[in-house]
Amino acid sequence: MAIKIILLIVFFAVMIGVGIYARKTTTNVNDFVLGGRGVGPWLTAFAYGTSYFSSVVFVGYAGQFGWKYGLASTWIGIGNAVLGSLLAWLVLGRRTRVMTQKLDAKTMPEFFGKRFDSKALRITASAIAFIFLVPYTASIYNGLSNLFGMAFNIDYKVCIIVMALLTGVYVIVGGYMATAWNDFIQGIIMLIGICAVIAAVLNGHGGFMNAVKELSMISADNAVPALEGSQGLYASFFGPDPVNLVGVIVLTSLGTWGLPQMVHKFYAIKDERAVKTGTIVSTFFAIIVAGGCYFLGGFGRLFDTPAIYKEDGSVAFDMIVPQMLSTLPDLLIGIVIVLVLSASMSTLSSLVMTSSSTLTLDFLKDVVIKNMSEKTQLVVMRVLIAVFIILSVVLALNPPTFIAQLMGVSWGALAGAFLAPFMYGLYSKKITKAAVWASFITGVGITVANMFIKFIASPINAGAIAMIAGLVVVPIVSLITPKMKKEYVENIFACYEEKVTVNKKRSLED
Question: CB–CB of 413/130 below 8 Å?
């Protein structure tokens, strides 16, 4: 117990210390929200990766999908690395940085408002972001409860409140740079921790080969009808249900392209070197962390004990990973706790920063409070960070059946609404305001309607369908609705044609 407590105290002290240190660099709104658009490659890459993977992935998704798909769930981690990190940086990174600087857009709703010349779009996007980021945040707290209960026997409510307070302090004090530096530290902890945990868990089952052998002897009970009862599927290449596995990969990988807190990282990139290095580092980070989490979760059925079942006999997915870790040595359990805290606090800080800046800059400023001064904006954002954290804590204190539900709904609505118009808006001059509205309605409509009507069995698949629907709806609606003023759009896209001078080490052109 002493080891665990010491690790936690050191961890929290470092987080707060970084927040205080970063305060001196936070003198205006641009510094607070974007770190002055001067964040280097490693900080940006780790900020992207740690915001991507939270306790929801490590505890909820790894447990749930590892149980359902076995070792094939590792494909989700690979998808996260290739689609969610590598391609996201290649497709969105540079263009997002260039166009958002041209538009002087600090948030995704502000991008929509200025790119499509519509204050109504900006306000609506702000409302969507705020509403659906709250349940996502609550799911992060919830993911910690079982782990802390296993390690410290601490009440769930105490765990939530302490984590919320500590995260709130360093974000309010230091702004974006505090979160970026802490994300870097937390990311290193995550990389080391996940490797140590995988090695320890597999060693407890006689090593990798023996663990795979044991897994291959289990009959599939959640497979597609033609495969039910087959042995070896949980250790196979595509698992017992490859179709639904694809839906999970799409939601958790492509979804990041439309999440405000993820895309926000591209706004703050410093230079070309940061784009290139960040692409490689964030992809490597995702392979290790996401691939490791889902790979570990794939062995979940080897820990099929009464402890992971609810009173009604159904599997408590959030209990699978804690059960896997319960037999580890105290030092490793301490590392796991710090690992999951790192994953959770990094994502939480990103979410509260995004929500507060969005509500302040895109709704309160000029809409509710005219001519809001820079000093007032900073004060309001700090107050709203506290408000947002309190709201998410209240929701987390009355948790749903399992945390993956909340994350699936949040990701589906946000990415379904924002992904298509944001991506197309960076590349095409032909996208119309009506197409953006159509995407907002489609993404939120499919996700929310499915919560009540359940016309799509899995909320994960509903989110994936919402995203794909947006990618189809936006170009079609743009073809049949009035185009934006040519001069206005041409002026925006001129940012891509600006000439720059680079050193020979960057380019071989004469």
Answer: no
Which residue bears the tokens 């510094």?
31
Is pLDDT at 296 greater than 70 in this prediction? Answer: yes
Q: How far apart are CA 241 and CA 234, in angstroms?
A: 10
**Domain 2-19+39-404: what homologous superfamily?**
Sodium/glucose cotransporter (1.20.1730.10)
Q: 500 and 507 in contact (C-beta within 8 Å)?
A: no
Amino acid residing at 454: K
Distance, in Å, from the CA atom of 88 to the CA atom of 253, rounded to the nearest integer, reads 9
Phi/psi of residue 202, each to 5°?
A: -65, -35
Residue at token pair 């409510």: 157
> Whole-model pTM?
0.85
At residue 265's C-alpha, the angle toward residues 377 and 64, to 5°, is 115
Q: What is the 3-state secondary structure (H, E, C) of 366-388?
A: CCCECCCCHHHHHHHHHHHHHHH
CA distance 114 to 117: 5
**Using alpha carbons only, what angle is made at residue 392 by residues 11 and 258, rounded to the nearest 5 degrees?**
90
Reading the block at residue 126, the tokens are 């702000």
Domain residue extents for the chain: 2-19+39-404
Contacts (Cβ under 8 Å, ≥6 apart) of 505: none
Q: How far apart are CA 449 and CA 441, in angstroms?
A: 11
User: How far is the C-alpha of 316 from the C-alpha of 150, rounded, in Å?
Assistant: 15
3-class SS shares of the chain: helix, strand, coil, % to 5: 80, 0, 20
- Give the tens place of pLDDT for each residue, 114-126: 999 999 999 899 8
